[in-house]
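User: Hey, quick favor. My workstation is busy. Could you predict this chain's structure for me?
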Amino acid sequence: MRDPVRCEWVGDDPLMVGYHDEEWGVPHHDDGELFELITLEGAQAGLSWTTILRKRKGYRKAFAGFDAAKVARFTSPRIDRLLLDPGIVRHRGKVESTVANAQAVLAVQREFGSLDAFLWDFIDGAPIQHRFDALADVPASTEVSKALSEELKQRDFGFVGPTTMYAFMQAAGFVNDHVTTCFRWRELGGAERR
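Assistant: No problem, here it is.
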């Protein structure tokens, strides 16, 4: 039996294949999962996504399962200890921004009821179905990711540039950027246009 056709960025690493086939582009609505993806996409800046996936368990352990209320209370000594943890990317700015982002998540939850409601409002609550035939057609950022980035920065989030936010939107299923030849494009609603 032949392997299904996948997006060309996947390669043959089983970790990447599993991520692509089961998670990438699937709409996420859980605040903890959304906070995790914002964190991981920010951590990925300058690194490969494979590196981040390999450290994902370490991130979940280091950042209290992405419970924003717990992470928001991390102290400077705890941040210093995290910078010694090989299970995460040991970059002070990225670690500190995760704590600041947790505090920002709590503020968003107080104002909008949930991080989910706040983020999905940027695309009117439904995934954008793209129709890209090749990886080269997929943009690095869009007007929506730029607007989201600006709004998050105004709310004191860090490591949320337009390109990072577009990668987040792809990962969290805000957009279906599987190419049209990929078996997941149709499974995630690619035949429908919005």
